[in-house]
Amino acid sequence: METCLSIVVPAYNEGTRIGKSLDKLHRYVDSKPFPAELIVVDDGSTDGMQALLQMAAEQWPCLRVLRHEPNRGKGYSVRSGVLEASGRYVLFTDADLSAPIEEADKLLAALEASGADVAVGSRALDRGLIGVRQPAYREWSGRLFNVFVRALTGLPVRDTQCGMKLFRRESTRRAFELQRVTGFGFDPELLFLIKRGGGKIVEVPVRWNNDPATKVHLFRDSTRMFCELVALRWRAWTGGYQCLRGRQRSAKAS
């Protein structure tokens, strides 16, 4: 039977948290009436997480583990996991499950109801769903970044950085193949490529809780993400993504 849902989890040095997250993900996969798989991408971890993942994979047939060495970045990990996925739908979620995995049901329902190609989990549409908030300086920097995203890409998305998104694999695969950003700022490029290729995006409010153990360094990574955003706009202006449109439309038609 064809796999319906693939769940991709990028992980780097998550040895202290991955066990609890894997248990929740495994229960979620087992609760579904359709075939599902779980793909964890170990991005060159050095904290013993690799051994934990190998033990879990031996016990759970639904789990596959991919490993990069050395560390390549979150965007690279999501890309490689999605390109290895076999499900009709592909979900990626952060390893800390800041957005509870059960929220994926909202994204599945929205994708089915709207016929969209990607459902984006969002903290901005209903901030009342946020349980544990980020420090104010992080929250406002995130809002400012999304102002720049909308201005430079035209994306109709108020929160590109929430770590839960669901894709129709066939119609969005070409965007993942063309994705160039390998770090934390990959989301705007990916959504831009999907939209540019004629794909439809729907934004869905989800529950979310900040984890203070985030690996995003505010100044360093924010600066890099802004530079990547400018580079994205430059590639679009200079024809760097011209090969996308026809390929993605033909995939959706098939």
Could you characterize what this model shows?
The chain is α/β, with parallel strands linked by helices and 254 residues long. It has one domain: Spore Coat Polysaccharide Biosynthesis Protein SpsA, Chain A, CATH 3.90.550.10. It has nine helices and seven strands. β2, α2 and β3 form a beta-alpha-beta unit. The longest helix is centred in the C-terminal third of the chain and has 20 residues, at 218-237. The protein starts with a strand and ends with a helix. Mean pLDDT is 91; it is low at 246-254.
Which tags fit this structure?
seven-stranded mixed sheet; alpha/beta; 254 residues; Spore Coat Polysaccharide Biosynthesis Protein SpsA, Chain A
Quick rundown:
With 254 residues, the chain is an alpha/beta fold. The protein is 46% helix and 16% strand.
CATH overall fold name: Spore Coat Polysaccharide Biosynthesis Protein SpsA, Chain A
The CATH class is Alpha Beta
Question: Mean pLDDT across all residues, rounded?
Answer: 91
CATH-defined superfamily: Spore Coat Polysaccharide Biosynthesis Protein SpsA, Chain A
Poorly predicted segments: 246-254
Major beta sheet summary:
7 strands, mixed
* Distance from first to last alpha carbon: 20 Å
Q: Please give the radius of gyration in angstroms.
A: 17 Å
Order of helices and strands: EHEHEHEHEHEHHEHH
Number of helices: 9
The figure for the number of domains is 1
Given the C-alpha coordinates, what overall shape results? globular
Number of strands: 7
What percentage of residues falls in helices of 4 or more residues?
40-55%
Strand order of the largest sheet: 3-2-1-4-6-5-7
| Structure class | alpha/beta
Sheet-strand content, in percent, reads 15-25%
CATH architecture label name: Alpha-Beta Complex
